[in-house]
Amino acid sequence: QGHVVESGGGLVQPGGSLRLSCAASAYIFSINALGWYRQAPGKQRELVARITHGGTTVYADSVKGRFTISRDNAKRTVYLQMNSLKAEDTAVYYCNTDPPRRVGVRGDDWGQGTQVTVSS
What tens digit of pLDDT does each residue of 40-57 get? Predict the structure, then answer.
């Protein structure tokens, strides 16, 4: 019951920065843990960062020290600040609860995501 809309992706050079935004419905935002996932071509979807209502954060080893997840409760929005981007970060990034729930705007399991491409 609810949905998310991801935005902020784009093309950036290695070493650059990008900030992704996830606007969530009230129900989805009420879930304790929200996270950012990503899926590169031919690879499994993976959780890269999560955040709880209390502000506790967890990061995948591959992004630790480079990415920062945060939330704005008034705007019901979760952000992912990505710094020192690498080519390996290229993927479609998705927002969802942890564990995942159905969050697509049209009833799909996942939203449309936002494409991040890191290339020189």
Answer: 999 999 999 999 999 999
